[in-house]
Amino acid sequence: MQTGRRFGLAAIARSVPAISRAATRIDRRTATVLSVAVFLVPIAFVVIVPHPLEQRVGVDFDLYRNVTTRWLGGGPFFEPYQVAGPYEIRAGALLYPPVALWLFVPFAVPTGPLATVVAVAWWSIPLGITAAAVRHLRPRPVVWPLIALCVANPTTLLKIWTGNPVIWSMAAMALAVVSGSRLTAPFVLLKPSLAPFALFGIRRRSWWLGLAALVLVSLPFGALWGDWLASVLNSRGGGLLYSALEVPMLLLPLAAWLGRTRGG
Predict the structure, then answer these.
(1) Does residue 175 carry a pLDDT above 90?
(2) φ and ψ at 202, to 5 degrees?
(3) Are the CB atoms for 63 and 92 separated by under 8 Å?
C-alpha cells in the first residue's frame, strides 16, 4: 500500500512541472479571447442594468479638491464630526493621511481653464503610468486574463470613474515594479488600508530610501496627524478589510510584473 502511495505521489510530483509548463505556454490567441471575455462582463452589466453608475464622474476628485481648498483657506481638513467622537463612515468622510495633501494641493489651487487641465491630469497621469509600466514589462500571455480581470473589476472601474485617489497608489505600485528601484512602493501608503502592498521590495535599499522620503514629507503636518488618527479610531464600518475591493487595482501591476518578459 505504501509503495503504491509513493508511486502515486511521485507521478503527481512529475506532472506538476508539466502542467506548469503547459500553463505558461498559453498562446496569444487564447489569452486574447479570455481577456476579451473578461472585459465583456462589465460591458454587459452596463448594457443590462439601468443606471449602473449612481455616482457622477469625478465625485471623489471634487470632494478632495474641495476639502483641500477649505484647508488652504484656514478651515479643517477632516470633518469636525470625525475628530469629535465615534461616527459611521459615509460619503464625505476623509480617511486619507495628511501627507496626501502634497498630492491634493497642486490639483486644488488652479482656477479657471487651468483647473480643467489639472483635472484631466488627475486621471491621465496615474492611468498613463500604470499602462506604460504594463506595456514596458511585456507580460506573458498567461497573465493577460488576470490583468484583464483586474482592469474589469467593478471597483477598479468605479474608482477610476469617481477619480478616487487610490488610482495614485496604483501608479506608485506600477512605478515600483517597472524597474529595479522600489523607491515608490512605500508611497502606496497614501492609502494606509492597502499597506501590505507597500512592503513590495522591502529588502532593497531603494525601498528604505523611499520610506525615508515619505517620512520626511510627512513631518510638516504636525498636529494634523493627531486629527487623522482620531478620525481613523473614531470611524465605524471600516476595519482591516475596508479596502479589500480595491486590491485588484494594486494586483494589476503586480500581475504584469509576475509575468514579465523584461524589466522589473
Answers:
(1) yes
(2) -60, -20
(3) yes
- Which amino acid appears at position 259 of this protein? G
Element (H, E) at 87: strand 87-88
Q: How far is it, in rounded angstroms, from Cα 63 to Cα 92?
A: 7
Give Cα 165 to chain centroid, integer Å: 9
Helix and strand element counts for the chain (H, E):
13, 2
Residues pairing with 235 in the sheet: 87
Query: For 48-96, what is each residue's pLDDT tens digit?
Result: 665 656 678 889 999 999 999 999 999 999 999 999 999 998 888 889 9
In angstroms, the CA 245 to CA 150 distance is 11
* The dihedral formed by the CA atoms of 130, 69, 245 and 188, expressed in degrees to the nearest 10: 50
Amino acid identity at 76 = P
- Looking at the predicted structure, is the pLDDT value of residue 98 above 90? yes
Give this prediction's pTM.
0.83
Other C-beta atoms closer than 10 Å to the C-beta of 219 total 9
Number of residues that make up the chain: 264
Chain-centre distance of CA 119, in angstroms?
A: 19
The CA distance from 51 to 31, in Å, is 31
